[in-house]
Each structure stands twice: as C-alpha cells, then as structure tokens.
Amino acid sequence: IPGGHDGIDYFEFCAVARAIKENRMGPVDIYDAVTWMAVSALSEESIKKGGAPVEFPDFTIEELGQIFRQQAKKAKYTLSADVERWINPYIAMLTKDKGKTFGNGRWVRNLFEKTLERQAQRIISLENPSKEELLTIRMKDVGISLKDPNESEED
Q1: How far apart, in whole angstroms, are the C-alpha atoms of residue 36 and residue 22?
Q2: How many CA atoms lie within 13 A of 90 on its CB side?
Q3: What's the confidence (pLDDT) of residue 15?
Q4: Degrees (nearest 5) of the Cα angle 82, 131, 106?
Q5: Does the structure show a pLDDT above 90 at 152?
Q6: Which parts of the chain fold into alpha helices (H)?
Q7: Three-class SS of residue 117?
Q8: Between 40 and which of 3, 56, 66, 135 could a Cys-Cys bridge form, CB atoms 3.0 to 4.6 Å apart?
Q9: Helix (H, G, I), strand (E, B) or coil at 87
C-alpha cells in the first residue's frame, strides 16, 4: 500500500488491525488511520496532476446522519425515536452555511462527542437511572430543540 508520511499510514493501519484482532484498543483511532490513508492517496493524485487540487466531495446529510448513528451503535448507545427522526434535519440546519474547507466527517464525530458530554450532564441529575436510560441518547443530549414541542415525545 503506497502511503504518505514515509509509509507510516500503512504501519498505523496494521497496528490498528492487529489491535482489533487481539480485542484491545489500538494506538490510533481507526477513523484517523483510514483518513490518513485517504489523504495519502489524494496527495499522490494531486502530484500526478502537477500539484493541482483534487476534488474530495463532502458527505451528504444522509451520510452524516448515518455516521452519527454508527458512532452511537459502536459505543452501544440507542438513539431515541425522536433523535432518529430529527438527526438528519438537525445536521442539515447546522451545516447549511459551512464553507468549502468544512471537514464534515470530523464535524459529525465532534457532534457525537459533544452529545455524550450533554448526555452525561443530563444523567447526573437523575436519581437512579436505569441501564436503558444510561445508554439512550435523547434530543437534549444532541442539542435538538424544536419550535413546536408537539413534534416530539420527549420533554
């Protein structure tokens, strides 16, 4: 596998793959390892074109919503029915005015991390939260608030 950074991408990817096989945490986040490999390929493509920029399309709103859902599933969280319903429109609203340099894959990952911070703050206020409640992401956690409260089952 050709790679930038003197082949470090390949070695990082191998280290992550080995960690997965051994059921332990890897030395780097898998998303970073895959991103490094993609950037290397794009860099090589740009060099072939004499240094011209290479087009790298943004994820669609649906893909960003799917990334959010996958992150929740990977972390063993469940999205409430309302979050499932409203996550894509919420992402669309938040990203509509972003510029050309907006890195939307990283952005949705940051949104998920911020969601977990809010969820932890919400859970702290509960006296005896059930396991289900501990693993459920609600509208407040994501930061979604609707103008019409009748549009949501959540308070």
Answers
A1: 23
A2: 21
A3: 74
A4: 55
A5: no
A6: 8-21, 30-48, 61-74, 81-95, 104-124, 131-134, 139-142
A7: helix
A8: 3
A9: helix
Question: Hunting for tokens 């060099």 — which residue is that?
Answer: 47
**What's residue 104's pLDDT?**
76
* Token digits of residue 155: 């308070």
Burial of 26 (0-12, 13-18, 19+ CB in 10 A): middle
- Can you tell me which residue has the tokens 């809010």? 118
Q: What does the alpha-carbon distance between residue 122 and residue 83 come to, in Å, rounded to a whole number? A: 16
pLDDT per residue as tens digits for the range 42-85: 667 667 777 666 666 778 889 899 999 999 999 999 999 999 99
In contact, 20 and 26? CB cutoff 8 Å = yes
DSSP state of 151: G
Bridge partners (DSSP) of residue 79 are 137
Distance CA 22, CA 3 (A): 25
Q: For tokens 């960690």, name the residue.
A: 19
